[in-house]
Amino acid sequence: MTVVEHRPPDLEQIPENEPAIFLAGPIQGAPDWQDEAYRLITRDYKSSDILHVFNPRVHGELSHGYQKQVHWEKRHLERARSFGVIAFWFAAKNDMLPYEKNRAYAQTSRVELGRAFGWKDFDATTQIVLGIEPTYRGGNATYFESMAAEYDMPVYQTLGSLCLAAIEQVPTSP
Question: How many structural domains comprise the chain?
Fold first, then answer.
């Protein structure tokens, strides 16, 4: 029952037969839901396989630069797509946190969700779990739900239920 967390900018090589979960969803303006998700996954993961959790949130300054951050996220999203689960959590915006003026909330996460559903359209084995906090007001929630309905995919309303669903969908090592 080993869960290993990976954060940017580290790009260590991970064996292809070890499952992974990518924590996708808003960072800017959102509470640190990723740390809570990692804690829940670590608590509830019972397999003897090693599980890698890709957490894109950086604490403090983005000292490695925007391009390295984007490269890290793309690489690990693709890794989770190949042998794992992409867990999207659309957390509600916290207006007490700093946020870039005139930036749409969760805009990158929305693009990533569309990309993940495109992967699923091409390869039905792509594992996606989707959760939307009931107080999320970042836009597109109804559209997200309709996308999920096309695949009979539930939409979770709590981070705990999303993490459990992600764990249940994690593939086992061959």
Answer: 1
